Amino acid sequence: MNPENKWPESLPKFPESLWRGTTELPSFPRLAEDHTTDIAVVGGGITGITAAYLLAEAGFKVTLLEGSELLAGTTGFTTAKITAQHGLIYSNLIKHFGEEHARSYFRSNSESAEWIIQTAGKLGLSCGLEREDAYVYSDVGDEKTMKQLEDEFEAYRKLGLPGEWVDSVSLPMRIGGGIKLPGQARFHPLHYLKGLLEAFLAKGGTVYEHTMIGEEVEDQDGLTLFTERGKHRIKCRHAVSASHFPFYDGGAMYFSRLHAERAYALAFEPETDYEGGMYLCVGEPRRSLRAVEWEGRKLVIAGGESHKTGQSDCTIKHYENLEIFAGELLGIRRIPFRWSTQDLITVDKVPYIGKLSKDKEIYIATGFAKWGMTAGTLAARMIADQIQGKPSPYTELYDPTRFKANPGIKNFVVENANVAKELALGKVEFAHKKIEDLKPDEGCIVRHDGKRVGAYKDPEGGIHLVDRTCTHMGCECHWNESERSWDCPCHGSRYTYDGEVIEGPAVQPLTKLDF
Known about the structure:
Rieske Iron-sulfur Protein; nine-stranded mixed β-sheet
């Protein structure tokens, strides 16, 4: 381990998010027959549950469909900041979208943040919701980031945003400078969404888990969706895709307009008092901080260490780097939780929200770029309004059919060149080990029967072999030792050690091999 790490025994052996580790969620059956509903909402995270709640409240018959378990995706592994301060976003929005759209971005996310707060109050939800000021800051001596921060503050001034320049923060460290956005919030996202789910069920909503929706869609007399396993039909008038990559994209190839990134988090008990605030260092390495209450104690969540999915040589080092950062800043008594998450980012950094095309009643919400608490809520509110024929002032900004020439085309070319490189490199990787060389709880590429295959030896000594070829577009998956998964470096599909799908766009499992 890194010799600077004074807390080498603190990391939990297995990842578990604080939110999922402190929430008892109900379970729901798999869809086992054909089904008819007004609206099918695909995806059981913050967007899907919020959209389902709003549409049921509007009087529709709504069915919520989740491919695995509710809240087992990004929503269950977030840092859960409710804020319209999304890094250094507003200077770029002015540059590429103009001041009017930049103001719309702030207003739409601020309105959605307030909607969360008001809804938690209306439903009487005990979800640890607390108002907090949010900060973006630069480290001392980081001149490049300071210039970006100054440009961002100038954007705040142009747009009339309620930001304040600060030269210090209530953390035991010096900063080069920062921007405070007052009156933001933090909460326990699963306690909040469990309450929203209960309200949805009370309004007559229906939920199915372990029901993955396939790519095929028929559009005669409404829409017909099909489950991936069993091919059961779901007849509906409208469909909402809240499943990261759209389950159906109408040939728009959203997988080529989005890239997947992983990031890491620790929830630790500090030795030094944490005085509050939500912080994001916008230089490199990027670091995030916020507090949370747990078992009568205050923990601090430290996040960061982003990289493209499947493109890290050693994922456990990202936890260790956060451990060093947290220990040097606040000291560590213990680390009860560690987890990682996956986010999708569009080529222009603005989410895709709205109707997929003019001829089908399918709506999508994706590309929240790590700010899904507000963006996911915004998406649910916009789509619920659009289905009801209510106009939204934000439709043009988030239109999923848009394709901005700058920076969209440049980033599109860069991201897809990276995909081509990873596709080629994966086919020539060398297998350094044999199956018999594996230690318990170790995975890697091995040579077996003359072929390079993925292998994992579980703690009991069982061997699990898979063909590493991603079932989405044929890239070779890489082993992720900290999560014990096979991750695709091209479009971000992820699989369990024995090949079951964790994250799309893949819908089919890896091929299991005999040993």
